[in-house]
Specification:
Blueprint (H helix, E strand, L loop, with lengths): L5 H12 L2 E4 L6 H4 L8 E4 L3 E2 L6 E5 L2 E5 L3 H15 L3 E4 L7 H10 L4 E14 L7 E12 L5 E13 L6 H20 L2 H7 L6 H15 L5 H12 L1
């Protein structure tokens, strides 16, 4: 019986193990296809600038590396847009060349938009060297920027989120689930940030007017305002 040298076995394992799997993460443009809401704030979302050195590589499980065919920056931007749509904002996706104040102001004016949301992706990676025992741990670092109609940056903050999922020797869909989970956790943390929510402002441009009218209607219906008082107050509010 011919013995195989240990070095040959190690070399074979190394070659077979160091495979690279490519994942096609589907983009979701549903937020941009929704019917526009009258009176709602319109936000331009521009894909984050990818600052990572290796823009395709997104993870490693054991000796197997993972890379994305679809830029994860687009997936993150779409996930943020989806949450904005749920809050009642109108959305349009546009790639703005550079971050020049005048260019941003022009892009917003040309698209009849009120805000531009963009930023940078600084880190996106998951890893588990022992996939059978330990969960794959993922980390997402990104900086979000918000600009007003004058092209002035009104908000900028860096976020860093961690997540974990057991992969094992699972099918490819487990990898996709982890990638989706990493993005979902990052976006959830963003929308929990009160400073970001305050900078974003209300989704309805006429929120103050609507709030005032609702208050007058409530006072009128409960008898605290007569018909004459209600009409006078409404007229002053609408002025």
């Amino acid at each position: 019986m011919k013995l195989i040298k240990p070095g040959v076995i190690l070399f074979t394992v190394f070659i077979l193990g160091c495979a690279t799997q490519t994942f096609n993460i589907l983009e979701n443009d549903e937020a941009y296809r929704k019917t526009a809401i009258t009176g709602a704030v319109k936000v331009i979302t521009a894909n984050f600038e990818d600052l990572r050195k290796n823009k395709e590589m997104i993870g490693r499980v054991g000796l197997s590396y993972a890379q994305a065919a679809t830029p994860v920056t687009a997936k993150i931007t779409d996930a943020i847009a989806s949450e904005l749509a749920k809050e009642g904002f109108n959305l349009v996706k546009l790639q703005v060349a550079g971050k020049n104040k005048d260019e941003i102001a022009k892009a917003l004016k040309d698209n009849n938009a009120d805000l531009l949301l963009t930023g940078t992706l600084d880190y996106f990676y998951f890893c588990s060297l022992d996939a059978l025992i330990k969960s794959a741990k993922g980390r997402v670092d990104f900086t979000l920027e918000l600009y007003n109609s004058n092209g002035v940056m009104i908000f900028s903050k860096k976020y860093s989120t961690l997540t974990a999922k057991w992969i094992g020797f699972s099918p490819r869909d487990k990898y996709v689930e982890l990638i989706e989970q990493m993005i979902a956790v990052a976006v959830t943390d963003l929308f929990r940030d009160r400073k970001f929510i305050r900078a974003l402002g209300p989704a309805d441009k006429n929120i103050k007017l609507l709030t005032g009218l609702e208050r007058l209607i409530r006072l009128h219906s409960t008898g605290h305002l007569s018909d004459e008082e209600f009409n006078k107050a409404k007229s002053r509010l609408l002025e």
